[in-house]
Amino acid sequence: MPPQHDLYFAKFRQCEFGPITTYKNAVEQVIHGTSQEYGKVVDALSKLDGTDKIMTAFERFPSVFNAEASLEGIATYSEEAVSELFPTVPADNLASLINIHLHEHFLRTHSVLTVLDPIEPSQDDLFRRQALSVAALIANCPSSPLAGTCPPNVPRCKPCRPLAVKRIRSLSSLPENAFVIGTVPHPLTMLSYIHRKSKLDPLFVRNTPRDHWLVSITNDVVDKGTGGYQRMLYLENIISQSLVKLQAEMPGGYWQIWEESDWEGLETAIGFRVGLNPGDEEVKGRYDEALSSAVISAKERVLLQTTESSRDVTESWNLAWTEIWYYIRALQRRQRSEQLDLKGN
Predict the structure, then answer these.
(1) Cα–Cα distance measured from residue 101 to residue 160, given in angstroms and rounded to the nearest whole number
(2) Rounded to an integer, what distance in angstroms lies between the CA atom of residue 58 and that of residue 65?
(3) What long-range pairs does 266-273 form, CB within 8 A, spacing at least 24?
(4) In whole angstroms, what is the distance from residue 76 CA to residue 78 CA?
């Protein structure tokens, strides 16, 4: 449970490891190094005589391990710590207690949850509707008899307070220490939604503002004359840095494409479990049948692998916006694959 922008933990997220390293307050609980360094230790252990005195690898090869100072942010839920600090918590509730501590720590280290959506007018909320619901769920303090206690490494933690959930139209409005939920629509989907049309011909598309979504969210954070390519690079940097939080000026966040939302990956990004079950995105309620048909048709055509005229002309007219959409989709699919690998599926 590190403080915001802790460089050690940022490097952990990037898997930037060198010599085998331990920490004074974590000992064998946190060890990292390259596979080559671990291989050296395994080779040395395999060559030991079976009659040698029983010793740990730390004791036998102290020069191999790089011992660092205490690692701030490590909470140890050892049997001794739990019996002393949480004597009334049953052993089978320990995982829930840890999850509550992680949730409350997240709320303490962020100032606000923001949902990015530049679309006007404000009642057109299709692309932020689910994100706002999920953000509201995260922003509330955990409701459990176990809530209100402090983690072992922070004996005097501040009481949990719910966060505000704010919709922003541009990154220039981003508060300090905010967590961003960015749901990016494909140009074809957004234009179909705004103009209530399922088929977009070339002449119509060329009369729409170029890279409209991308330009809107980067307004006032780059010069007005900045081209779409430079805006795309700026946003890609924001997204990549949000995954590791190496720089204090970069917000943490979770980015996904609207047409293929993956809320399961959010728990990896925020670091704790939440009861997410937002269901499939649907166009319903006050939206008329023609609009529903237009958006659903656009979504299906966007995800098709075959050539499609409306999608192709829309992508050609909005190259930078399209590139961001494909970048986030690739990132999203890679993260999903990594999560499946960790689960052993």
Answers:
(1) 10
(2) 7
(3) 266/134, 266/181, 268/335, 268/339, 269/243, 270/106, 270/138, 270/179, 271/102, 271/106, 272/99, 272/102, 272/103, 272/106, 273/99
(4) 6
> Rounded to the nearest 5°, which phi and psi values hold at 209?
-60, 135
Q: What are phi and psi of 145, to 5 degrees?
A: -60, -20
Provide the mean pLDDT of the chain.
82
Task: Indicate the domain borders of the chain.
Answer: 7-68, 90-343
CB 228 within 8 A of CB 187: no
Q: Which residues pair with 178 in a beta bridge?
A: 112
Confidence of residue 114 (pLDDT cuts 50, 70, 90): very high
Mean pLDDT of 291-317: 82
DSSP 168: E
- As a whole number of angstroms, the distance between CA 211 and CA 204 comes to 15
- Residue 113: what pLDDT? 95
- Using the Cα atoms of residue 137, residue 143, residue 146 and residue 151 in order, give the sign of their dihedral: positive
pLDDT above 90: percentage of residues in the chain: 31
Could you tell me the two tokens for 256? 């996904």
Instruction: Count Cα atoms within 13 angstroms, Cβ side, for 298.
Output: 30
More confident call, 311 vs 18:
311
How far apart, in whole angstroms, are the C-alpha atoms of residue 196 and residue 124? 12
pTM of structure: 0.81
Position 218 confidence tier, pLDDT thresholds 50, 70, 90: very high
